[in-house]
Amino acid sequence: MLTPADKIRVYQEAKKELDRLIQENKIAAEQQLKRTQDINAANSVIYFLSKDIETPDGADPFVRSTAIEDFTEIAPNINYTHNGTWQDKIKAVIKHANKVIKVYDMVEIMVAEEESGNTKYTQEQILGVVSNNTSKMVKDNMIKAYKSPKREKGYYYGNPIWWNGEILKDEFLPQQKEKILW
Asked: Could you count the other beta carbons within 10 Å of the beta carbon of residue 173?
């Protein structure tokens, strides 16, 4: 049987270990974000240069490891808190995507995250809350909206620091699918 002093000691040790693990997790998330930014930068250069050249192996050199489709699974380093505000959740998803993202893509990520937290929100409920909150967050300058020049329906949303004035920096542009014209 543990004495009260032993319980306090074990509690303090467990808390110290948890704090250490949380700090390690933050460092790992920052490193992953930096790697993702480096990948995006390298992809931009390769994509730009590959338009005019043929690669020696004939393969498409553009790595699509940061496409929106890759963010629909639960990511271990997303800073998504189930008991946080919806605005905090939206910011976590945008930060995780590391590029502007549409509401429907945010909702896909959030549905997976909410299911992992055993919450009872439906996709429709999450869509309604996210739609309302993104509008309010744009109005309050917490996030910015980006309208694609490709006449796509809807807006993309991102961190305000991703813009130079009113122009979205290239590394944060969405990975857009080309429309097939018949």
From this structure: 17
Domain ranges of the chain: 4-172
Contact of 89 with 81, CB cutoff 8 Å: yes
| Tens-place pLDDT, residues 6-19 | 889 988 998 888 88
CB 72 within 8 A of CB 112: yes
Q: Do 79 and 95 meet the contact criterion of CB atoms below 8 Å apart?
A: yes
Tokens of 78: 């997303």
The structure tokens listed for 153 are 């329906």
Q: Where are the beta strands (DSSP E) in the chain?
A: 101-102, 144-146, 156-158, 163-164, 167-168
Residue pLDDT, tens place only, 58-78: 554 444 433 333 333 444 567
For Cα atoms 53, 174, 151, give the angle at the middle one, nearest 5 degrees.
100
The whole model's pTM is what? Answer: 0.56
User: Can you count the helices (H) and strands (E) in the chain?
Assistant: 4, 5
